[in-house]
Amino acid sequence: MRLKRSRFSNFSISIVILCLIIFAVGIARADDRFVDNGDGTVTDRKTGLMWAQTDSMGDITWLDAKLYSENIILSTYHDWRMPTVNELESLFDETLEKYETICGHRVKTHPLIELSCGFIWSSEERSISAFAYNFSRGYVYKDRKTRYRGFRALPVRGVTR
Fold first, then answer.
1. For residue 132, what are the domain limits?
2. For residues 148 and 9, what is the distance between their CA atoms, to the nearest angstrom?
3. What does the mean pLDDT of the chain come to?
């Protein structure tokens, strides 16, 4: 039995191969987005931000998160601060597999940035409340500044591109 060869089969195979190559290049570029600086910091090439590689590693109120972020010295830099909501949101990646934090939350962020729990305080505040980002589910919400259980600080600074 002889199979007929379609005149489009070579074309179809070429399209599939091209799509796979484009997909692979996209993955490589995504992996190149974050650079481990080897000094406890990670640089995000997409946003031009440098992040602490780990969060505060313990429950923290909003005010203590602010003080922690503004007074930490990492890689000889003294200009660390709390991130904005948009900056935190840029770290959440729905396409990544969740990993479990030490507090038991499962989060989605690049593995070079190690979160110890799922909620990170932002710099944005309103009276007795402030905004935090939930890395378990990928959304922003408001809570009392005095809340601390499960909340962390993740310092950030701008870098010159």
1. 34-158
2. 60
3. 87
